[in-house]
Each structure stands twice: as structure tokens, then as C-alpha cells.
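[Solved] Which block belongs to which protein?

Original post:
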Amino acid sequence: MLLPTEQEIMQMTSQELTLLLYQGLLEKLQEAAQAIDTKNYDLANQRLQQCHDIIRRLGAGLNYETEKTAGIPLADRLEALYQYMAQQVLVANIEKKRAPIKETMTLLAMITDAWEQAMAKRQDDRPQIHVRKLSAYDAPDDR
């Protein structure tokens, strides 16, 4: 995964930052699973700790105020999913097993897909501004 520059990160929306965290989490989960497969338990431990940290950051970034205005308990649902994923990451780290990582990756893939769809819909719902450029020879339309 190509990491964005600090300037690019500063210009991202909170939704884009969340997507970036999802992508980073998926990458770390894959690395942890590979480390377990090769019995590199030190690396697996490091990656799973990073995963746990990312999940905690995702939970800390939840906005419970939007729930009140939108009428959808999305933050509560995401919090429950994040807690479950964090628990699975801990189980994977303690037992050094791949199954909890795979389950977490499956959940994360569904969340990421839904997040990307919501971001695309939000882009589609924005009003489009069309600016017609005139050449030096075109007269403006005075109708």
C-alpha cells in the first residue's frame, strides 16, 4: 500500500481517513496471518498489536452526534463490530491461530465495501456545478 504524504493526509476528509485506516488494518491482518503461517510469532505479535491499535483508533473516532440527527444508530453498530474485531485480534495473538484473523478480515472487507459505497453515494448526491468555458471568440449567452 502506497502511503499518502502528510500533506495529503491533512487534506483528507474524516471518511477518507477512516477508509485509509480500514486499508491499513487489512494489510496488517494479512501480514499477521502470513507471519503465523511461517511461525514468525514475534512479527505476528507486532502486526496484531498494530491491528488492535488501529481498531481502537477507529472506535475513538466514532461520531455519536450524527446518530442523533440521522436517526440511525450507526456508531453503536460500528462500535460493536470494532469491539468484536479487537477481541478476535487478541484471540489470534494469544493462540497464534489464523481463524480469528480470517474472520476479522471477512468482517473488515464487508465494512470497507459498505464504507466505499456510502462515500460514492455521498459524492453522487452532491450538487454538480457545471461551468462552461468560453473561448475569446464566443459571446456569452444573454438569454
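(Second protein starts here: sequence line, then its C-alpha cells.)
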Amino acid sequence: MSDAAGGAGASVPTGKDAPARRRLLAIADSDSYVKWGASLVDRLSDDTWDIDFLVLRSPLQPSATQLVAAVADTRWAATPPEVIDFADFAQRVADVDPDAVLLATRGPVVKVMLRAALAVARRRPIFVTGLPGISIPATRKAIAYRSQSDLMVLHSAREIRDFGKLADKMTVPQRFGLASLPFFPPADDIVEAGVPGGPIVFASQAKVPADREDRVQLLGWLAETARRNPGQKVVIKVRAAAGEAQTHAEQWDYSALLAELPGGAPANLVVEGGAMSKHLATASGLVTVSSTAAIEAIGLGVPVLLLDDFGVSKKLINKVFVGSGVLAPASEMIAGRFRRPHPEWLDDNYFHPASSDDWEKRLLKLIRKRDNEKLKVHTQHAGTTGGSLREAWDRKRALGSYDRTLSGYVALLIGSPFAFALRCLGWGRRRAKRALKALRRMLRPNGVTAAVPVVLAGAGAGAGADSSATAGQPVLVAVELPPAREPRIALTSAPVADVAPIAAAAHPVDDAERRTA
């Protein structure tokens, strides 16, 4: 962040000695990106920057209510940002002639908007992108979609390290800038908070957990928490009401699933929207599986609990919390035992000193370099085959019905059969890879299942033993140890040679990450 102007009595540079003011044009598309983008640029100094913040009209455009919540704690709270079409964005770039453009959008949208801005800009702007929250593990798609940007903003030393290694592996010459997550005060100012007896806030996620059964089970835990604490409200905080769009599509809405709770939902278990900061201001604790709201709560000093009953994996986006001390089972939530993270975890994960933030310095340095020399535009890492038809396809896929160009419809008509064929081919390859991985696990000596022959000391020995088992007869004990689950033990009196191999359980780490970067 830029330093404030000099103290009392300090001379203020004027004329040619004064630092040049810079123009930043920022645009966001979905609710989470609007919140991130607005909060990020809101921290920039008014002494250095003139900022225009816009929202892209798209299939994931936030509703008026979502927009108000997303910018609630920024300079746009009184007057929400303007919503514009894709074509208007290109015209705005041409008219404003910005020094920098922040594309606070999903990866596929970054790709098409960057092209559009380059085509009309009078001077080549510096392009900034980033990810709105927890971004561990680093993903290839996140880097590939943003490979033409000049600076990618991340939020922890660990993210910078992991994304840097992956970018090098992909041979993508990406620059990374560090910024504290902008949803809470700087790490230097964290104080213990939390209101005893205040609401317990559950930060829901559209895609985690993904399975219907898991979400119903999670609701059951929340209901039990509410029943154990009748004088305390348990809030299921949602990002979108029914019919509203959000960054990730939600198949199983918690509001709809509440009706399936045995015996109905307790009166103090409620579903609410609104700004997370307002919920945390009165909360006694926050619980989630892996929402960025956990980081926001930690930053505000509110105790947290990250449910690990479903495992710890890339798919669940919670591997970053390993070693933090805040991962725990639902029984801890029901008992009201929330956690505070270990100090040694904080510095490497989102709570570095504010003085370590360097994204603005890096951006200004790139702008000055652009002022003095012609900057090369990086080559798009992947997805360039097909020329103008491919560009039209990318635009139509990113904007959906909000791309009304003839070329977009033509590209969709021509490209859809090929895309379907490629998806089928990819599905077949993924199935084959999963089968091979399962086979390797079964053959590994230290795989997830092990079959151990033992000799019973007496008839019927051991819980669950078949009554036909006799003393001295070898039996097979099968122990299955899926990650982060209780071991399941099966005892059978069948001779070892007659027992079929036990299929390995699906390992969550091997599942492909479904998150849209």
C-alpha cells in the first residue's frame, strides 16, 4: 500500500516533482469477485489513484441485494458500482485510457476481457488479476487463464510460493504480488473478539461439500448444535437467495434441504444472507468446511472451527488449514469448542505483516516501465487454436446469452459437437486413470486397505466375529483406513484363500478438483 503523505511540517512535492496520478479501471463479474475487487482497490491511496469500479453484466452478475452486501464496507457502499455490458467495457477502456486494468473476474472471463482491452487501448495498460480468497492448492487452470496478465495478486507467502513453483513448471512467466486479504483489518491489528452467547455462524459454500447426503448430514449437525443451545441462534449464512447467481453453481440449497430434517428444524436454526462482516460483528464463533469466511473471522479475532468430518483434500479446499489447529470434527461444534489458530501457521497463511504487501509497489513499477518502453504481452498459455473462431467461442462460453454477436452464435454452433467429443474423450481418460490409481493402491503394501490373517483365541472371540468361527482357525481381518475417517474393521471366519481382494476406497486427494478457477 502507498505510504501516507509526509507528517506535519513536511513539504509536499508540487509540479514536476509531484508523483504522477494513476488511473485504475477495475471490473468484476460475480458476487465473490465483486467483494474481493472492491475491497482490494478500496485500500489504495486517493493521493495516487483515480479508480473506476464496474460490474460486468453476465450470467453470474450479482443481484441488487448481493451487490449492496459485496461493497458494504467500501467507498461504493453509498453508491453501488455501475453495471455495464462487455461491449461497453471495451469502449470504457478506449475512453478512460487507464494505466492499469484490474480484471476481478473468473478465469474464462479474464481471457476474453484482456483481449478486448488490448484491441482498443490507446496505451497498453498493465493487467492485474487475482483470486478472491483461499487459493491453495495452486491450480493449472488458474494460471493458464491468467497467463497474459502482468501481475497476479495472491494473499499469502505460501500461495506466492506454490503458484510460483507451478508457473515455473508450466513455463508461464507470471509475476505475483502479495496483498493481505482485504476483508478485515491488517494482521498487525488482530485482537481476540467473539461475543459470548452470540450467534454461531455457519459459512455455507456452493460446492463444498458437494454431495447431497453430506449436506443433509451437515444440516443435522447444525440442528443438533441449535437444540443443545436453545438460547443461541445458529445462522446458516448463504451467499445467494433462491434464484440469485453466485460464483459457483449450487445444486443442493440448504434452505430447501432444511425441510428434510427429521422432526423439523429448531426455531433457532435460521438461514440468512447479507454481508459476512455484519454477521461476524456479533458472532460467538464461525464454522465452515473451507470458506474464506474462516480467514475473515480469524482476522477479526472471532473463534473458528473447520469441519474435517468429510476429509482433508484438494477437492474440499481445506488442505491449507493442516497444521493450523482449527480443523476439528462436528462434535466439537456441537459442544461449542471453537478454536484459534496456532501463531506459527498465521504468518505463512494470510496473516503476514502488512508491511510485506507489495502488489501496489509492483504495479506502479510496471506502469513506470510501460511509460518508458514497450512492454511485451505474454502469450496465452493454452486454448489459442482456431484463430478468430476460437476467440468467438471463448467469448460466447464466458458470457453466455450476454454475448449477442453473430460470430459467437456461429462459433457455438460449430464448436459444440467438437467440445462434446473432447469431453467424452476426457471422461474416458479420467475413468481409466482412476481405475489405475485404485489398482496401484490395492497392490501397495501400505495402501488404504490391508488384509491380516489372525488366529482366534477362542470361539466367537472379537466383536462382530461370525458364530461359526472356532478357536485356532485362521480368519481375515480387513482394516480400511480412508483419510480422515474412522477405521472400518470387518472380521470373517472364511479361510484367507477364499476371501476376494477388498476394493480400495476412493481417495479424496485423487479426485479431480471441480472448482472453477
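Accepted answer:
You had them paired correctly. Confirming on the second one: The chain has a mean pLDDT of 81.
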